[in-house]
Amino acid sequence: MKLNSLIKTNYSKMRVGRGIGSGKGKTSGRGVKGQKSRSGVAIKSFEGGQMPLYRRLPKRGFKPIGKKNIAIINISDIENFIKNKKIKIQDEINLKNLVEKKLINKKYNKLKILGNGEIKEKLTIKTDFISKSAKSKIEKAGGAINLLKDKSSQNV
Q: Is the whole-model pTM more than 0.70?
């Protein structure tokens, strides 16, 4: 004897559309005509004329709320700027100078130097953030790094 045969269900599934005597015949409990009477129709997020939830909530998109505008430049980029004579070696490399020479967009508030690439020149860099590898490469080449410290940069 199987275990499943001992367990009896107290209900049977309603078979709609099987005659008038069944109570769910003819229109199968869907009413008469209209969108909801058709098969394969689901009115998703329709709230009966009430303003739907997705329209009540503010749109945020894919822009992070607490995004910081930080320009990221690699050492290889700085080397290319020097090679193409867009930056002079004796000039201090900082956010203001890079924006003035139109090497980075003016929308950025801070500057971060990363260590991808090699540097041969002795540079003076004024930046908000710098990676360990970039710092070691610049110092190895004889350059000087001036880190800007302010209250808002400590949270990044």
A: no
